[in-house]
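Write out the bound-state structure for thymidine-5'-phosphate.
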Amino acid sequence: MNVQTSGLFISFEGIDGAGKSTHITGLSEALSAKGCKVTLTREPGGTVLAEKLRTLILNDAMDVLTESLLVFAARRDHVACVIRPALARGEVVLCDRFTDATFAYQGAGRSFDLQTLTTLESWVQLGLQPDLTYWFDLAPALAAERLSQARVPDKFESQPVAFFEAVRSGYAARAEADPKRFARIEANQSIEQVFADVIAVAKARGYL
Ligand code: TMP
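---
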């Protein structure tokens, strides 16, 4: 459980195409069936203001400092208006991406200064971190294959495989720095097996 709250905060991470979305819904249903009140949300986004910023972040060209500031501005609104209040009510917050994505995409992917990101993280989160972060790990070449069959790509999804190699290494570094929080999920398996792994982690932690 999060030190400052009575609720439970779980984030979901991975490169584009790693296939986390179905499993977020599935875990939400499993937790609800157990009687938990679940708040499902996402980043960038999760509030009216943050969703407006999401549209800019995902579609407009900008330098990486601007992008990082917008991501953290969206996060500030989301943490203050949605995440902290839900945790204070004792709910389970399932968040599709959080700050690890900023370290992976802006930090590792776009080579932005990690110390600046760490400062922004502390300003915006004031110590708040997920209790558990699922990292759906998939080789970028496989993720690119999956994405090519999906929707029209946004600014990040249309990046080359080399960008996602860097993003993946960013996630690996975050996981290595905080192994207790992270659960790496092998995403190169059947949907059923990936979901079984997701459920097993939640059970092992006593959440289900
Ligand atoms: P999604 O497609 O999983 O909703 O994620 C939106 C995109 O935004 C995805 O390509 C990752 C990117 N992103 C960042 O670059 N930095 C961030 O801090 C977050 C949360 C997402």
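---
The chain has a mean pLDDT of 95.
The chain has eight helices and five strands.
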